[in-house]
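Can't attach files on this board, so I'm pasting raw text. These are the components:
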Amino acid sequence: MTEAVRVGGICKRFGAVTALAEVSLRIEAGEFFALLGPSGCGKSTLLRIMAGLEHPDQGSVFIDGIDVGRTPANRRPVNMVFQSYALFPHMSVRSNVAYGLRVTGTGRAEAHERAEAALGLVRLTGYGERMPHQLSGGESQRVALARALVKRPRVLLLDEPLSALDARLRDEMRLELVTLQKTVGITFIIVTHDQEEALSMADRVAVMETGRIRQVAPPAELYEAPADRFVATFIGQVNLFPATIGADGTAQAHPFPGVTARARGIGAGRQVWIAVRPEKITMAPRGGVPAGRLSGVVEEVVYRGDLSVYLVRCMAGPDGLVRVSRANAARTADRLPGPGTEVVLDWAEDCAVVLAS
Amino acid sequence: MKPGTGPLLRVAGVVPGLWLAGFFLLPLAFVWILSFGEKQGLVAVDIVWTADNYLRALDPLYLGILAKSLWIAALTTVICLATGLPVALGIVFAPPRWRPLLLLLVILPFWTNLLIRTYALIAVLRTRGHVNATLGWASELFGLPFEPLSLLYTNTAVVAGLVYVHLPFMVLPLYATLHRLDRSLVEAAADLGAGHLRVCITIILPLAVPGIVSGSLLVFVPALGSYLTPDLLGGPDSQMIANVIERQFKSANDWPFGSALSFLLMYVTFGALALRSLSVRRPAAR
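---
Top answer:
Structure tokens for the assembled complex are below.
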């Protein structure tokens, strides 16, 4: 694989605020890459540095193996889809899409032809004459995509592209973006705060927090083998048990003798966390079945249609609640365990993950 | 609306309404009636509903002065626009903490009396003024012969004075419009490959049109009716329509004719306002 973008040791401060601290990242050509993190984690700043709209205090940016540190935004082989779409309000859709070609010397006829082709690519054939204020949110989004793609960039940068759309449209656009990326074969780098969006679209995801990259991994690895507590809690739900590494290298949760996990490469005596995802836990009424790893009483049931979430009290205090989610496989809701049911909880040994920090 | 505020607002509106009627509309109506009168004696005017004053105002002599006033006001507007636009852009794209200071510098001249500012300009432009002193010093430095320029009491001096006085009226509305402009549009244009100049011409300028229109109007209308600047900085041939009007009311003591000229100026101004409302309506119709 060849690299599309490589950033090394990027630092960026805004006054007293550190937006990026020593960020290094390599993104492969043809990849659908996501920068995921809570707001203010520096993900948008990193994207804008790649686009040349922001300049790093330190560090280098390579696009296609070429150092673009001194190349202004208008000469970089990347294009951006802005969060607000940033369609030029005084130009028709066609002029908007053709703009990037016209300012770089393409003739009017060819520019318009290519603009129409790009509009076709995003399924907006025949929209060329409209003005931006006549478009819906989804249509504006597609025009912004067409306007960036018509330049045939090496890398397409998307800054929270779906955040302004309503939920149903967002789901549609997710699929469409993935399909589009496969069609055009351009490297996509998307910035998002929505973990579901990142997991469902990207080939690889970088999770960021306060200006640092916490983990870069494919979605499944990110979810099943999070690198630390931040990644584990930011992506999906997780039960965390404080634990200590024993002499035999096994992590043992403190008040729960049944909660153990194999730790690799962490010294004995270290304080760690054992993480278990709610859907990995099986739940059965007490008695009849062998004792599980934990036992407790169902305190609350949250019905969500496709699944139900059970909060099981295994111990008094705020840390004594364990979250369990079970698919509602049976149709009748009255067969689900209700509040007050005494249950035992169990999970496969390899479902528990040890987090060192 | 909270109960009780309605009547209060109505009462609050009455006072300015009375003020406007008593001190603006009534005198205006008086002048309008006067413009159809005939001068009888030193102070006596007969209202005979004649159009003679207006016909006299259409004399080539006065139309010429009106045309010249229009030309000077238009030139002032264009120069204000050409200088005000870079200034406004500079303030908008300056670091945020510099903006209040820069805006203050633009507004600062307002805090000084117009008369004083105009006299200051005389000191700058006269034969032994600062401009000539600087030019003389510079040519001496390069060993060139120097003849002081006669800058004062010319049309150039009038235009220079009008530009100086009216520039803030252009900069402020331009700033207001450009400040509201979505910064991501500029970034998008740059991202798509446009250089600085290209971004200015294709994105910023078209979107600044509302500001350009209101700024131009704010400069053009008062410049057209300006009296003090041509009076103090202009020569014998650079009088503008307001100077002629002043002379009818004072030295010529011909109030009916002065009134007619005043209303002629007002109709021209209405014309400019009508043009503006057309230009504002167009984008909505598009």
